[in-house]
Amino acid sequence: MSESATGLYPNFNADFRLTDAEFNRIRELVREHTGIALSDAKRQLVYGRLARRLRALRLDDFSSYIELLEAGESGELEQFTNAVTTNLTSFFREAHHFDILADNLRKIAEKRPIRIWCNAASTGEEPYSLAITACEALGSMTPPVQIIASDLDTNVLRHGEQGVYTADRVERMEPARLQKFFTKGIGDPQGSVRVRPELQRLINFRQINLLESRWNLQGPFDAIFCRNVMIYFDKPTQYGILERFAPLLRPDGLLYAGHSENFMHAAKIFRSIGRTVYARTPDSGDGGRDGGRSSAA
Ligand SMILES: C[S@@+](CC[C@H](N)C(=O)[O-])C[C@H]1O[C@@H](n2cnc3c(N)ncnc32)[C@H](O)[C@@H]1O
């Protein structure tokens, strides 16, 4: 080990030194490229994740790494954003949302095909839970439902697309559900399960950075799932994103947020209908009428 301290943590054995100025610059870059606002408490986490990149690139210090990022090298920017995201998720997380969605799907399916945008979809458990909900609610393995699953992190998107999960990821799932919607894939790691192709056909995975000024996406949607990502953004960033969600959501569509997220500050655009589910307000724009094209690519 070349250094034994990061500067802030004298007892923290480290390969590289991370000065306050470097940490602050990294924080700025994280915010600029992902919207994620990192507190001081995240210093060690950031160090751990990025030290791996320094080793992989055979760099001697964080300054050289920062220079690389500032030069805008797109391959490394992708690795950088993948490294700093937190991807915690699970099947049927915050289960009450799926009950509300199921009720809604039954009503909407009588009128039209259904479109759902699941953003910050991480490794795919959330969009597959949506697909399972649709199959169950509409009594078909080929329901008239299209799900766009997006995330900033290209590693998690690949995982989601593959649809292979270790046994611990599905251990709490009801056996009947597991049997109906998963298979044991030949050649997959021992004990792992694979989602059935029928579920995969309902989902389109793509990279979308919520922070970017144009999303490669066209509305309108009947539901937008945006759970457990806004918590990482500051309020003005959240507001800007919510303003762009509204025109993409049908007037009777619903926005589903994470359990610790609260959009009271955007009450002009979305009103809470309880249990972290939001409906559009009449003032929230012309959603649905223009298919959300105004804010989409
Ligand atoms: C904690 S996970 C939440 C996963 C899932 N929505 C859930 O609730 O279980 C947060 C996800 O947000 C993604 N993310 C972070 N910043 C993002 C951004 N600017 N645009 C799109 N996705 C982002 C991360 O890559 C990560 O997969």
Plain-language structure description:
By secondary structure, the protein is of the alpha/beta class. 37% of the residues lie in helices and 16% in strands. The chain contains ten helices and ten strands. A seven-stranded mixed sheet has the order 6-2-1-7-8-10-9. It has a three-stranded antiparallel sheet with strand order 3-5-4. Helix 1 (20-34) packs parallel to helix 3 and helix 2 packs antiparallel against helix 4. Mean pLDDT is 91; it is low at 1-11 and 287-297. It binds S-adenosylmethionine. S-adenosylmethionine (SAM) binds next to loops.
Describe what is shown at a glance.
The chain is an alpha/beta fold.
Oligomer: single chain
Q: Helical proportion? A: 25-40%
| Total count of helical runs of at least 4 residues | 10
Order of helices and strands: HHHHHEHEHEHEEHEEHEEE
What is the straight-line distance between the termini? 48 Å
The biggest sheet, with number of strands, parallel, antiparallel or mixed sense and barrel status, is:
7 strands, mixed
Mean pLDDT: 91
Radius of gyration: 21 Å
Strand content: 15-25%
Class based on secondary structure composition and strand pairing: alpha/beta
* Principal-axes shape call: globular
Task: Give the SSE map.
Elements: H1 20-34, H2 43-57, H3 62-70, H4 74-84, H5 96-109, E1 114-119, H6 125-138, E2 145-151, H7 154-162, E3 164-165, H8 175-181, E4 182-183, E5 193-195, H9 197-202, E6 203-207, E7 221-226, H10 235-245, E8 249-257, E9 270-274, E10 277-280
Parallel strand pairs: 1-2, 1-7, 2-6, 7-8
Antiparallel strand pairs: 3-5, 4-5, 8-10, 9-10
